[in-house]
């Protein structure tokens, strides 16, 4: 019974936001997608690379995108650049959190230059993910 009550609180917070997880590693992609569902997202789409993500975004832009940096054939930075060229990134566009196994300063700087909203280092913990999402969405709506 406690688990049901715990699930209801974030359900209201994130229930109306769709998410897209772009990650080439099956385990990490499924882990992040499941974490999103656990914190209350009811609509979570996944893509293995930037090319697949572009198709999903063209059909229906998500309310949040969580994207890995290193993917083949199209990585996260190229995906973000292509979305910006289409007018879907930057101020008032798709809120985006980049994922990486390494917090290398050049990755963080490049993400900032591309107007990515946040940066998370893998492995992603559910509570940290929820807090980062909350901050990003509040910043976008405020």
Compose a concise summary of this entry.
The protein has 142 residues and is an alpha/beta fold. It is built from 6 helices and 5 strands. It has one domain (20-141): Response regulator (Rossmann fold), CATH 3.40.50.2300.
Structural notes for this entry:
The structure is a single chain. This protein has 142 residues and is an alpha/beta fold. The protein has a single domain, classed as Rossmann fold (3-Layer(aba) Sandwich). It contains six helices and five strands; from the N terminus they run αβαβαβαβαβα. Strands 2-1-3-4-5 form a five-stranded parallel beta sheet, with helices on both faces. Strand 4, helix 5 and strand 5 (118-121) form a beta-alpha-beta unit. The longest helix has 16 residues, at 126-141.
